[in-house]
Amino acid sequence: MERATTRLEDQVCFALYTASRAVTNLYRPMLDELGLTYPQYLVMLVLWERKSITVKDLGAALQLDTGTLSPLLKRMEANGLVRRRRRPDDERSVEITLTEAGAALQGKARSVPGRLARALELTGEELVALRGTLRRVATTALDQLVRTEN
């Protein structure tokens, strides 16, 4: 284990922060071609997989609260990508579904992951390993937060 230090470049949090910003910025021109912002792209990824989802479940999948999701979903609905409607069986629950335009966008988005991988200059194996490490870091950090809160 490394010696404790307060040097900026030695901080894991700073490495994660700068990597996250840099990768998000790499996505930007690709997503601009699709007319999507990065958070909208994440919503679309969930919807392309599930076709329909409640706002509550979407928030859980993306780890976003409804206060963040609601305006995002309203803009996406105004852009014709999704439809929001109250569920007939539970008026408190809002269901999000893809429109035809939203579903059609999936074909154009298929190239994004490969383009990002090439931009990062990582092999497929390196990407899988990185994703696994990042998931483990996120899960462990969230578990620690839950333990601390209890």
Using only C-alpha atoms, the radius of gyration works out to 18 Å
The CATH first-level class of the largest domain comes to Mainly Alpha
Structural class: alpha+beta
Mean pLDDT: 92
Strand-residue proportion: 5-15%
Key structural traits:
3-stranded antiparallel β-sheet; alpha+beta; 150 residues; Arc Repressor Mutant, subunit A; 2 domains; 3 strands
Description:
The protein is of the alpha+beta class and 150 residues long. The protein is built from 7 helices and 3 strands, in the order H-H-E-H-H-E-E-H-H-H. Helix content is 68%, strand content 12%. The chain has a 3-stranded antiparallel sheet. A hairpin with a 2-residue loop joins strand 2 and strand 3 (90-98). Helix 1 (12-34) crosses helix 6 (112-120).
List the helices and strands and how they pair.
Blueprint: H1 12-34, H2 38-50, E1 52-54, H3 55-62, H4 66-78, E2 82-87, E3 90-98, H5 100-109, H6 112-120, H7 124-149
Antiparallel strand pairs: 1-3, 2-3
Helix pairs in contact: 1-6
Would you summarize the structure shown here?
The chain has 150 residues and is α+β, with helices and mostly antiparallel strands.
